[in-house]
Amino acid sequence: MGTPRVFSGIQPTADSFHLGNYLGAVKQWVDLQDTRDAIYCVVDLHAITVPYDPQTLRRRTRVAAAQLIAAGLDPERCILFVQSQVQEHAELAWVLSCVTGFGEASRMTQFKDKSAKGGADQASVGLFTYPMLMAADILLYQTDEVPVGEDQRQHLELSRNLAQRFNHRFGETFTVPAPYILPAVSKITDLQDPVSKMSKSSSSPQGIIDLLDEPDAIRKKINRAVTDAEAVVRADEETKPGVTNLLRIYAALSGDKIEDIAARYGDSGYGGFKKDLGNLVVDTLAPIRERTAKYLSEPDSLDAILNEGARRAHAIARETMITVRERSGFPPAIS
Question: Which of 27, 114, 187, 274 is catalytic?
């Protein structure tokens, strides 16, 4: 057995990633470079399932890539690329769509949630087939493990089912991927509504800490975070969701245990706790913001990194698609 391969992607749908993205995904990706054969991408094909502006998408894709490198993804230790630069993603998505049942696809909860907001009649077919593209992203690279949050479990299960189905019908072709989940940081919530996930689409600006926020803005958001009247720092998901969320953030950034942090501050009130947490968040994110600006100021270097990542990804994807095309009954692709 060789080094397990992991694959994951992130959408360029905002001008900055937020703290939930960082702790729930990107920080894990950085750590996994040391123990896994890691492949990561900016999934711009996924970003066009809803109405969008091409120039904004192009800019956000570059900002997303710069943030990932600034946060610690090392092109020497992982493959980092932009999804649309590897055409095999779209090709495999079509093949997988043709072995997916309509009822099976209809049960995907994210489509139900997202289409409900604008009405199912207004939802794109791309939004409906989004999970098959996600499955293609994963299966294309013979992925062993996928770092996912709880909200992506259903999509990963579909990827597993499609891999097994294709293998059964046409012969062993795909590795069946397993989830890689770190529960301790799988749920970072809105600072103003701590029972809801931190999210660009549903959170208020004061409820989100962006990786590219200025230090003063970060401290203000932490200071204004919703807590409760008890003024005791302790974890209790049911009665103290706001404090529990702040403890979870503190633990994820410091490496300390939640119970140790709670014991340190105890009943001394929330002021000192929030001040220290604000400084901790600033100390973590300020260097990322500065490095992101540096990479964006050197567009040729950033393009070179992404183009090389796409070439490396394409080499793997091409080998998978040679087998898929042969097993599916298609003639070889013209090179």
Answer: 114
- Catalytic residue chosen out of the listed positions 27, 112, 117, 200: 200
> Is 257 considered catalytic here?
no
Whole-Å CA distances, 176 to 49, 62, 102, 180, 318 = 26, 31, 22, 13, 18
**Model pLDDT, residue 184:** 57
The more confident residue out of 184 and 23 is 23
Concatenate the DSSP letters of all residues of 230-273 into one string. S-----BTTTBHHHHHHHHHHHHHH---HHHHHHHHTTS-SHHH
Secondary structure letter of residue 177 according to DSSP: -
DSSP H helical segments within 72-183, as ranges? 88-97, 102-106, 109-118, 125-139, 153-170
CA distance 58 to 48: 11
Which residue out of 197, 221, 240, 274 is catalytically annotated?
197
Report the C-alpha gap between 328 and 317 in whole angstroms.
16
308-323 pLDDT per residue, tens: 999 999 999 999 999 9
3-state DSSP call for residue 146?
strand
